[in-house]
Amino acid sequence: MAKKGRRGQGKSSIINVNRQANDFRFGGTTNVGTADAEQDRLLSDTFYDNGALELVLQVDSPESIIVGRTGAGKTALIERLNDIKPRVININPEELALGYLVDSTLLRFFYDSGIKMDMFYKLLWNHIFIVEILKVRYDINNEVSRAGILDRFKDLWTRNRGRSEAVNYLLDWGDKFWLGTEARVREVVNKLENQVQESVSADAKKAIPGLIDLSAKADKKNDTKVGEEIKAEIITRGREVVSRIQTQRIQELIRLLQDEVLSDRQKQFFITIDKLDENWVNDELRYQLLKSLIEVSRDLNNRVDNLKIVIALRQDLIARVFEKTQDSGFQEEKFKSLYIDLFWSSRELENLLELRVNKVISNRPTARSITMRDVLPQLVGGKKPLEYLINRTMLRPRDLIIFFNNCARAAAGKSVIGAQDIFQAEIEYSQSRFEALGYEWGTDYPNITNLIELLRKYPASFTISDVADKFRESALDFVTRNPKHDYIYSLINDRYTDNDPRIVVELCFDILYKIGVLGIKPSGQSNIYWSFKRPSYVSPSAKAKAIYYIHPCLWSALSIIPIEAKVGVY
User: Fold this and answer.
1) CA pair distance 538, 535, nearest whole angstrom
2) Residues 206 and 281 in one domain
3) Which residues contact 497 (CB under 8 A, 6 or more apart)?
4) Domain count of the fold of the chain
5) Which parts of the chain sit beneath pLDDT 50?
6) What is the rounded CA–CA span in Å between residue 250 and residue 129?
7) How far out from the chain centre does Cα 258 lie?
């Protein structure tokens, strides 16, 4: 668990300036922020709220899942929450030990055997949240504080016999309270494993450490029969153990939180979980665990008035959670009311950048008042400079901050960023956005950068008819190079010979539209639609005659033939 004050507080200068002059000069290390919000020293002073922060701060509002693409500002919102509120519990996703849970031989065996483990997963997440709250609420961090709070719980039981189940639960786990989150996760899983072992035969006990290998170890027919019998016994006993999980204690504990522990309206508590998408590995069991995490968070938020659990999830990851765990009770429509969707307009991004640039300038007294407008050129490529910069972002703060930092470095020693400085900075920026798309979407589509690469040297706008033959030729060459066999490879390999040659092109373009590489203009009178900009839906029937636009952030990296300056993308 991490507490407040996580960003660097060093006194080192954010900018370099010409100390001999009265006017501002860009230095070689000038920056208006960092890609990582946790390390962004400017965030506290220049945080720009586009309306999402108010939803995060309202404990009694249902919105609690921050949803946005990489770089949209999810972590910045949580950092701001830490700055404003005194009682924020930040749970590091590494401490949730998802890797340990996924690697658990028993959990994996139960999952592969079709045993529904939802009840156990919910018990686990409830346990983690409740203990974290108690630790912080009563400052339990050593044996002395543990003993004191247990005495308090016993006194509560004496005064209110109806709390006996909750108090017994706390007494059972009392000696584990000051352990880290990961240790508690392991403790709960170990308890389940011990219960299963205690309920099976001696032969099954021996088999449990290597459950997945039971069939592989059976070389003879008799061994196979014995192996299957043992597996069947463990499955049966596992179902019984899971069905016996006592939720009564947990339910009573939740009532205890509401009525006793968090009853003071003036002491609201927040729990945050961020960066669940980092180092993510596609695994069906992980999606089941996240599903239960979302459900438990929603239920606790609904039942405990002075508590709000805030989860930040990348847009593509939460979409996969619902896709992989669909059942009659877990449908995305039922959870969309919990979303805090992070979308940014061009004007909001302009305001955000202006706050940051003006702050950097104000750190160096100058002979005259200088603002962001004074350090930018009049025009860049026939457009106003901010329009040029923002057009080359996917409407995300991180994109704009990175691009401006590149421009500032290119203008080192100057008082004004010139158009040529921006063009020079765009070369590095565009390549970085190409690589960032590979990182963001590589889990879903391992060949995504190869697919984007097929657009190299295309015109910036085109119809499917304009490029179908060229694209199909490049796609066939891509398949014959034997890349990773993912969804993109299978799509091209399976659909290349369709009677309508445009089908495979359109399906590939659908992927590129989804990730923001392509925009679509359904008709001559309509706007250009982008997946990261509301509204983003385009009717399939409109695509045949639609004009596709390659996003300007990739023009330099892919050597795209640009469109006229008067054509805007937003």
Assistant:
1) 9
2) yes
3) none
4) 3
5) 1-5, 8-22, 212-223, 226
6) 11
7) 29
